[in-house]
Specification:
47% of the residues lie in helices and 13% in strands. The protein has ten helices and nine strands.
Amino acid sequence: MKIWSQLPISMPREVYGGYYDLLMRAYDLFKRSDTQVVIKDVPAGIRDPQLICCYGFRGINEIEIVKCMLQAEQQGFDAIAGACYFDSGVKIASSLLSIPVTAPAEASMHLAGMMGNKFAVVTSEPGFVEEMTHHIPALGFGSAAIDRDPVRPLTLPFDLFIEALMKGNYSPVIDSFLAVARGCLRDGADVIIAGCGLMSPMFSTTGLAEVDGAPVIDPMVASLKMAELMTEYQSKGAAVKTKIGLYNAPGAELLAKGREELLG
């Protein structure tokens, strides 16, 4: 199967080649041998990762993410695996496409519920915490997360986080993650979600699978594996998404008209 991996911002390979390689190494550890993954960025999207902290800019950027994902089906992809813990644009794109579109945060929370009793999320930037916290009950997982501060940021400043990412020296990130994660365990968590697509592949590729017995979930891998699963279901004739209610699917004629009017 062929899966489109959707990054959240403009990340040209010539600049972020090291990250593409890191993410692909994480995928390669877990994907099926016959799965081909193609990583896509958002050419017209945000260029500075810290701008994602701003709700308004993130909302504008989401439009560009959706425009990118809507190309996947026409280009012969079997599914889309979102590659950002904000799950940006996933529900919108899913409602307009017939192929599965999976969300890292949502997939991770489902997985956490099967692995343990209470999860916590450790993310890379304090500015991400508010919306990621809001996202937990919005997806129906409020009772599955720890009560106090279910989303917590690294103590490592974001500029040093990016420096570690770009240089391939993940030790400062891992050290900060472990310290924050252990605080979550003391407050009742028994599963830790690594809530940032820039960060989680660092852990998968270095073998950081658990913290003091608590599983560590890589949302990028969770999203990919869910995309594989839903593609398999769909290939056997199963329905993998609703066509009614909130995410009702437009008919072919209306869908074509909308594409022409809004996407050109």
